[in-house]
Design brief:
Strand order of the largest sheet: 1-2-3
CATH topology of one domain: Single alpha-helices involved in coiled-coils or other helix-helix interfaces
Mean pLDDT: 93
Number of helices: 3
Structural class: alpha+beta
Strand content: 15-25%
Number of strands: 3
CATH superfamily of one domain: Immunoglobulin FC, subunit C
Radius of gyration: 15 Å
Order of helices and strands: HHHEEE
Distance between the termini: 33 Å
Largest sheet: 3 strands, antiparallel
């Protein structure tokens, strides 16, 4: 039980590190940043943990590429939702606007 929690904490930290690395390397090599995202997804599935909410919007749910608004992603608001349009796969993702 204690070992399992420790394993999940390490996995969560690794996911956060991979997203940071994907953000840093995006300008130089976007394919490598996509690979970091796929690795982070595999870690989260293996450890059976969720990717943190603030990181979920940083990758496309369809093609799993790292999204950078203004470069390969278009962000709009419509009907109390934030709409992300991935330019790579030309699909939409909608997230509700919530109060904090």
């Amino acid at each position: 039980m204690k070992q399992d929690k420790k394993y999940k904490n390490i996995a969560k930290e690794r996911i956060i590190i991979l997203f940071d690395q994907a953000d840093g390397i995006f300008k130089k090599d976007s394919k490598l940043s996509d690979k970091y995202i796929s690795l982070a997804r595999r870690i989260s599935m293996k450890a059976r943990i969720r990717i943190p909410k603030e990181l979920k919007r940083k990758f496309c749910k369809h093609c799993y590429s790292y999204l950078k608004p203004g470069i390969n992603c278009r962000v709009r608001t419509k009907d109390k939702k934030v709409v992300y349009y991935c330019i790579n796969c030309k699909k939409y993702m909608k997230f509700p606007i919530t109060k904090h």
